[in-house]
Automatic annotation (TrEMBL):
<feature type="domain" description="Semialdehyde dehydrogenase NAD-binding">
    <location>
        <begin position="2"/>
        <end position="137"/>
    </location>
</feature>
<keyword id="KW-0963">Cytoplasm</keyword>
<comment type="pathway">
    <text>Amino-acid biosynthesis; L-arginine biosynthesis; N(2)-acetyl-L-ornithine from L-glutamate: step 3/4.</text>
</comment>
<dbReference type="Pfam" id="PF01118">
    <property type="entry name" value="Semialdhyde_dh"/>
</dbReference>
<comment type="similarity">
    <text>Belongs to the NAGSA dehydrogenase family. Type 1 subfamily.</text>
</comment>
<keyword id="KW-0055">Arginine biosynthesis</keyword>
<dbReference type="GO" id="GO:0003942">
    <property type="term" value="F:N-acetyl-gamma-glutamyl-phosphate reductase activity"/>
</dbReference>
<dbReference type="InterPro" id="IPR058924">
    <property type="entry name" value="AGPR_dimerisation_dom"/>
</dbReference>
<keyword id="KW-0521">NADP</keyword>
<comment type="function">
    <text>Catalyzes the NADPH-dependent reduction of N-acetyl-5-glutamyl phosphate to yield N-acetyl-L-glutamate 5-semialdehyde.</text>
</comment>
<dbReference type="InterPro" id="IPR050085">
    <property type="entry name" value="AGPR"/>
</dbReference>
<protein>
    <recommendedName>
        <fullName>N-acetyl-gamma-glutamyl-phosphate reductase</fullName>
        <ecNumber>1.2.1.38</ecNumber>
    </recommendedName>
</protein>
<feature type="active site">
    <location>
        <position position="147"/>
    </location>
</feature>
<dbReference type="Pfam" id="PF22698">
    <property type="entry name" value="Semialdhyde_dhC_1"/>
</dbReference>
<dbReference type="InterPro" id="IPR000534">
    <property type="entry name" value="Semialdehyde_DH_NAD-bd"/>
</dbReference>
<dbReference type="InterPro" id="IPR000706">
    <property type="entry name" value="AGPR_type-1"/>
</dbReference>
<keyword id="KW-0028">Amino-acid biosynthesis</keyword>
Length: 341
């Protein structure tokens, strides 16, 4: 298999996880080309020194001729680049795309939130949502979710599916800076980010809003309205999403719904009553940690979700989907053990 975007954060995390995958040791998986754009020709070790076993691999340019020599290709590229490449790759090349190009099913929503031509939609890589795991088994094309939609959708899906909340939800989510990728951005320089927390994309304008709404509407079987506010925090990794919706059920009923929905899910960790997650406990792991309660006075369900944006929020989700696509055990190479402190 090949990784395009190998010099980026998501591509680097895919490589870190693949290096820990049993398939690499027993010969079921083989790491072929590692591709980049501006960094093509560089040693991977000079860009991602933590990927020690691959330090001397030289990054190749990203082109179709190289990628098509592989059975499976991970794309971890800026929006738009995946659709262009995918159009030229044969159906025999499985593609796991970390970008947004194939996530939205509605061309009108695509035009509104991303602009340009809608390239289509692929099976959506969030196996924990009802009905999706079966579509991912053996899939030749997979669209890995955005990081915020992973946290928010898993936090709210059981409640909207069971109809215990009104179909209008609110998501306020704090993200680490790696969520923005490696490219230099003026608002993401160290001195701008350190020691300060700020909201951005406020007022229903962040492009993950329609993705969260698409997921929740599908599981609810009725349109769900989403108010989403992202917040940037001075930490490298992690997302903490606080999700609320009007409810009339009590805390025991709400928690029973979540326990039922996620009983068999290897990567969803439902915390005990009155315990809420922290990003620090899921770093480097593929875990989604959920704290569920009801604010009875306000009549609100409150679910707090923590993920590592680069692991379950991107690369871990991508490897989980690869496992399903290739018929491996879904959990292979993925840990629920975090790195702390
Ligand atoms: N970071 C995150 O938490 C998440 C990211 N994603 C998605 O994953 C994808 C990658 O994100 P991320 O790793 O953060 O971004 P980065 O900016 O860190 O990395 C981008 C990568 O793409 C390469 N690249 C840039 N332009 C092109 C091009 N035109 N053709 C081929 N390769 C190109 C870069 O190569 P070079 O360095 O050589 O220029 C680099 O390897 C994006 O679609 C993003 O939305 C999804 C969920 C979460
Ligand atoms: C902190 C930060 O900037 N996060 C990114 C989301 C990263 C992600 O999941 O994005 P894609 O949909 O692009 O794959 C943002 O808000 O644009």
């Amino acid at each position: 298999m090949a990784v395009a975007g190998a010099s980026g954060y998501a591509g680097g995390e895919i490589l870190r996880l693949l290096l820990l995958h049993p398939g690499l040791r027993d010969g079921r998986l083989e790491l072929g080309s590692l591709c980049a754009a501006g960094n093509a020709g560089e040693r991977l070790g000079s860009i991602s020194p933590h990927l020690v076993p691959l330090a001397d691999r030289v990054l190749e340019p990203t082109d179709v001729a190289t990628l098509r020599q592989h059975d499976l290709v991970f794309l971890a590229l800026p929006h738009g680049a995946s659709a262009e490449l995918a159009a030229e790759l044969p159906p025999s090349t499985r593609i796991v795309d970390c970008g947004a190009d194939f996530r939205l099913t509605d061309p009108t929503a695509w035009a509104r939130w991303y602009g340009g031509v809608h390239a289509g939609s692929w099976p959506y890589g969030l196996p924990e949502l009802p009905g999706l795991r079966a579509r991912l088994r053996g899939a030749g094309r997979i669209a890995v979710p955005g990081c915020y939609p992973t946290a928010a959708s898993l936090a709210l899906a059981p409640a909207v599916a069971a109809g215990i909340v009104a179909p209008r939800v609110s998501v306020v989510a704090v993200s680490g800076t790696s969520g923005a990728g490696k490219a230099l951005k003026p608002n993401l320089l160290g001195s701008e980010v350190m020691g300060s927390v700020g909201a951005y994309g406020v007022g229903g304008v962040h492009r993950h809003t329609p993705e969260i709404a698409q997921n929740l509407s599908a599981v609810a079987g009725t349109p769900v309205t989403v108010s989403f506010t992202p917040i940037l925090a001075p930490m490298p990794r992690g997302i903490l999403a606080t999700c609320t919706a009007v409810t009339t059920v009590d805390v025991d009923e709400a928690r029973a719904v979540y326990a039922d929905a996620y009983r068999a899910e290897p990567f969803v960790h439902l915390l005990p009553a009155n315990v809420f997650p922290q990003t620090g406990s899921v770093l480097g792991s593929n875990t989604v940690s959920l704290g569920v309660t009801v604010d009875a006075d306000a009549g609100q369900l409150v679910v707090v979700a923590a993920i590592d944006n680069l692991t379950k929020g991107t690369a871990g989700g991508a490897v989980q989907c690869m496992n399903l696509a290739l018929g491996f055990d879904e959990t292979e190479g993925l840990s629920t053990v975090g790195v702390a402190p």
